[in-house]
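Protein chain data
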Amino acid sequence: MPELNEEELAFAARMFDLARGGATEQLSEYVDAGLPVNLTNAKGDTLLLLAAYHSHPGTVRALLERGADHARVNDNGQTALAAAVFRRSEETVRALLDAGADPALGPKSALAIAEFFDLPDMTALLTGRGPHPRAPG
């Protein structure tokens, strides 16, 4: 894979910042114009994982609608679902589950995160035993 020049690296950094900041409309426009929806940084974090970690369910939904891969695992063994569970972002977790994200995927899976940090509400959501089970789907 060819090395990126400074301008390309700066552009990529801005795209990751848009995901972190929840700039759904702007990021969606870039993806619609050809930005790879599964753009990944040096740590293996995708736009989806960063949006999930920073609790931006609207951005997560928009990326999923554009084909973002919820099964990507970063260099730390985490998925977007695990990041959303860690942040206790119920709406983001639901969006990822509705898209088919696997709670058991990855060395640091969403279920493992919920157990390790003692998050029974997230465990219930992930296993469908919560007060509002995910929509069939």
Confidence is low (pLDDT under 50) at residues 132-137. The chain is about 55% helix and 0% strand. The two ends are 38 Å apart (CA to CA). Helices lie at 6-21, 24-32, 47-53, 57-65, 80-86, 90-98, 110-116, 120-127.
